[in-house]
Amino acid sequence: MDLAVVLVLCLSCLLLLSLWKQSSGKGKLPPGPTPLPILGNIFQLDVKNISKSLTSLSKVYGPVFTVYFGMKPTVVLHGYEAVKEALIDLGEEFSRRGSFPVIERNVKGHGIVFSNGKTWKETRRFSLMTLRNFGMGKRSIEDRVQEEARCLVEELRKTNGLPCDPTFILGCAPCNVICSIIFQNRFDYKDQTFLNLMKTINENIKILGSPWIQVLNIFPVLLDFFPWSYSYKKLYTNTAYVKNYVLEKTREHQASLDINNPRDFIDCFLIKMEQEKHNHQSEYTFENLTITVSDLFGAGTETTSTTLRYGLLLLLKHPEVTAKIQEEIDRVIGRHRSPCMQDRTHMPYMDAVLHEIQRYIDLAPMSVPHAVNCDVKFRNYLIPKGTDILTSLTSVLHDDKEFPNPEVFDPGHFLDENGNFRKSDYFMAFSAGKRVCVGEGLARMELFLFLTTILQTFTLKSVVDPKDLDTTPAVTGIANVPPPYQLCFIPV
């Protein structure tokens, strides 16, 4: 081996050991498994299913413990009490976004999901206000979701009751809702640009859940040695494709902008940019617009489509549940008008099923990493400013005291003895606190309107005996992804 390479490696090791000593000397962190120098607790973690590894460690170290991802200490919160205490009771202190090096190099502190400080607060406030209050022009968001629900069932009719994999079609619907909100117009399901955008989102979710990406996040120094590894390169090029598309649409919007008649999210952002053009500290920049739209586009598409896909699989597995939903649809809505959000208050069983789908599938087992904004006294520990925090949403959604037999799909988890819908503080499918999902309201609306419209229009038929259907996640990483399956949509 070249002498220079040996020297660099030795110096790097000395530097890493120095940083290790510095980081391990701060605060009074919760106990946890003894870390190895540089490697941390990598050998106690399954990079294919880190969430499961953390659950096993919690049985030894309790609800609050520390693991080292490489040299970086991360405090893990396991169970409802610990998660609530941090994210809700101490929401401000725990509101910082934790490190996610693979993505941070692309977003550079912009957008909603991976930003912090003033950028995060201002961008989140603006996005929430725009999504909630403005309604995107003269058409409400509910109108847009209902329109897409009608397009969705028409597309499903084209399957002619034959077996099909619903992945693509169920991805198109929420993606088009987001496109309608952000870009004003929806796409035809066969539009090539639309297909390309869908492909990049699907690929990125798979890449982010891959073991190699988990390793790169644990040891970000490897990004400097393997900057063009296949997974990272593909993630980078896909992200660049979406950003370039957003930038192109933004230029088109600029050319036709009417400040008195904003058409969509991009118009609203551009108007805000114009209002703040003399503010040199403004967060309303092209770069922030591009990343914010990309965040809304990616998160708003994949999470909802995966939940829909998983939901249909569970309904195939449990035809008795599907039958009860359809009876409720017949009674409350009938067959001759489109479902609307007002119907939900009269459909406690459907509401319970939707909550149980999200609870059972545990879409984002660890959410996205948090961090503390300042030195925080938490229980009997002192967590230093900047320390990453992992919240086990699995431990909350599968709490066996709140949800008896949590590994069983049972809508009764959200029904009282009279059959009325029962709210639960343990329902944290969208996380909780200051960093709760910005698109929660939209996602809830889409899940209700899409699934209700599908079940109003079709009978679901499995191509195998429902008892033989496997509902175990095919991929468990940043998200739980259902196994591939086929079904038939038989018109009612």
From TrEMBL:
<keyword id="KW-0472">Membrane</keyword>
<keyword id="KW-0732">Signal</keyword>
<keyword id="KW-0276">Fatty acid metabolism</keyword>
<comment type="subunit">
    <text>Interacts with chaperones HSP70 and HSP90; this interaction is required for initial targeting to mitochondria.</text>
</comment>
<dbReference type="GO" id="GO:0005737">
    <property type="term" value="C:cytoplasm"/>
</dbReference>
<dbReference type="InterPro" id="IPR001128">
    <property type="entry name" value="Cyt_P450"/>
</dbReference>
<comment type="similarity">
    <text>Belongs to the cytochrome P450 family.</text>
</comment>
<keyword id="KW-0349">Heme</keyword>
<dbReference type="InterPro" id="IPR036396">
    <property type="entry name" value="Cyt_P450_sf"/>
</dbReference>
<dbReference type="GO" id="GO:0005743">
    <property type="term" value="C:mitochondrial inner membrane"/>
</dbReference>
<keyword id="KW-0496">Mitochondrion</keyword>
<keyword id="KW-0521">NADP</keyword>
<keyword id="KW-0479">Metal-binding</keyword>
<dbReference type="GO" id="GO:0016712">
    <property type="term" value="F:oxidoreductase activity, acting on paired donors, with incorporation or reduction of molecular oxygen, reduced flavin or flavoprotein as one donor, and incorporation of one atom of oxygen"/>
</dbReference>
<keyword id="KW-0999">Mitochondrion inner membrane</keyword>
<dbReference type="GO" id="GO:0019373">
    <property type="term" value="P:epoxygenase P450 pathway"/>
</dbReference>
<feature type="signal peptide">
    <location>
        <begin position="1"/>
        <end position="25"/>
    </location>
</feature>
<dbReference type="GO" id="GO:0051879">
    <property type="term" value="F:Hsp90 protein binding"/>
</dbReference>
<dbReference type="Pfam" id="PF00067">
    <property type="entry name" value="p450"/>
</dbReference>
<dbReference type="GO" id="GO:0042178">
    <property type="term" value="P:xenobiotic catabolic process"/>
</dbReference>
<keyword id="KW-0560">Oxidoreductase</keyword>
<keyword id="KW-0443">Lipid metabolism</keyword>
<feature type="binding site" description="axial binding residue">
    <location>
        <position position="437"/>
    </location>
    <ligand>
        <name>heme</name>
    </ligand>
</feature>
<dbReference type="GO" id="GO:0005789">
    <property type="term" value="C:endoplasmic reticulum membrane"/>
</dbReference>
<dbReference type="InterPro" id="IPR017972">
    <property type="entry name" value="Cyt_P450_CS"/>
</dbReference>
<dbReference type="InterPro" id="IPR050182">
    <property type="entry name" value="Cytochrome_P450_fam2"/>
</dbReference>
<keyword id="KW-0408">Iron</keyword>
<dbReference type="InterPro" id="IPR008070">
    <property type="entry name" value="Cyt_P450_E_grp-I_CYP2E-like"/>
</dbReference>
<dbReference type="GO" id="GO:0030544">
    <property type="term" value="F:Hsp70 protein binding"/>
</dbReference>
<keyword id="KW-0256">Endoplasmic reticulum</keyword>
<dbReference type="GO" id="GO:0020037">
    <property type="term" value="F:heme binding"/>
</dbReference>
<keyword id="KW-0492">Microsome</keyword>
<dbReference type="GO" id="GO:0005506">
    <property type="term" value="F:iron ion binding"/>
</dbReference>
<dbReference type="InterPro" id="IPR002401">
    <property type="entry name" value="Cyt_P450_E_grp-I"/>
</dbReference>
<protein>
    <recommendedName>
        <fullName>Cytochrome P450 2E1</fullName>
        <ecNumber>1.14.13.n7</ecNumber>
        <ecNumber>1.14.14.1</ecNumber>
    </recommendedName>
</protein>
<comment type="pathway">
    <text>Lipid metabolism; fatty acid metabolism.</text>
</comment>
<comment type="function">
    <text>A cytochrome P450 monooxygenase involved in the metabolism of fatty acids. Mechanistically, uses molecular oxygen inserting one oxygen atom into a substrate, and reducing the second into a water molecule, with two electrons provided by NADPH via cytochrome P450 reductase (NADPH--hemoprotein reductase). Catalyzes the hydroxylation of carbon-hydrogen bonds. Hydroxylates fatty acids specifically at the omega-1 position displaying the highest catalytic activity for saturated fatty acids. May be involved in the oxidative metabolism of xenobiotics.</text>
</comment>
<keyword id="KW-0503">Monooxygenase</keyword>
